[in-house]
Amino acid sequence: MLPDLLKLAVELAIAEEARRIQISVPEISIPEQRVATKVVRLVNVRLPDELVDVRGKGKMKEMAIRSRSNGYCLRVTVDGNNIYDSAYSWFEAMSDVAEEIAAFRDDNGNYVLHLRDISFTNRLVIYAYPTADNIVLDEVFCKYEV
Q1: pLDDT tens-digit map of 61-86
Q2: Residue closest to 128 by CA, chosen among 59, 54, 57, 70
Q3: Strand pairing partners for 141?
Q4: List of domains in the chain
């Protein structure tokens, strides 16, 4: 009988002590992550030229280039590393195997290059340079989030 009373006394003492202890958890504030969608739209761009230069963390959702010529290269640099530095013809060949690349001629005979889904931590730079004389990009459209 004594061991049962001792056990009960210990349990009561623990319960009393637990009731007196108050645990306070500090409130943690999680900063709200704000994302802004931005658009770059350029027309009649003579090459060579820098098309996009974005600083910060973000994602290029899509980019479309329309031109009457395919005589140019595109260099895409993410956080200081060139992920693409290729001629239009390379992008055209990759269109069949890479979901984020499409290069084709539209119904009006224009060359279209479409890239999408490129994430960056610090900086995104897109630069176009000619492989032929007098190359003009008729229209450049780039949508990104930062």
Answers
A1: 999 999 999 999 999 999 999 999 99
A2: 70
A3: 41, 64
A4: 37-145 (2.60.120.1390)
**Structure confidence at residue 3 (pLDDT):** 66
- pLDDT higher than 80, residue 111: yes
| DSSP-assigned beta bridge partners for residue 2 | none
From the centroid of its chain, how far is CA 139? 22
**Environment class of 88 (CB within 10 Å of its CB; exposed 0-12, middle 13-18, buried 19+):** buried
Task: Give the Cβ contact number of residue 79 at 10 Å.
Answer: 13
pLDDT top residue among 121 and 33 = 121
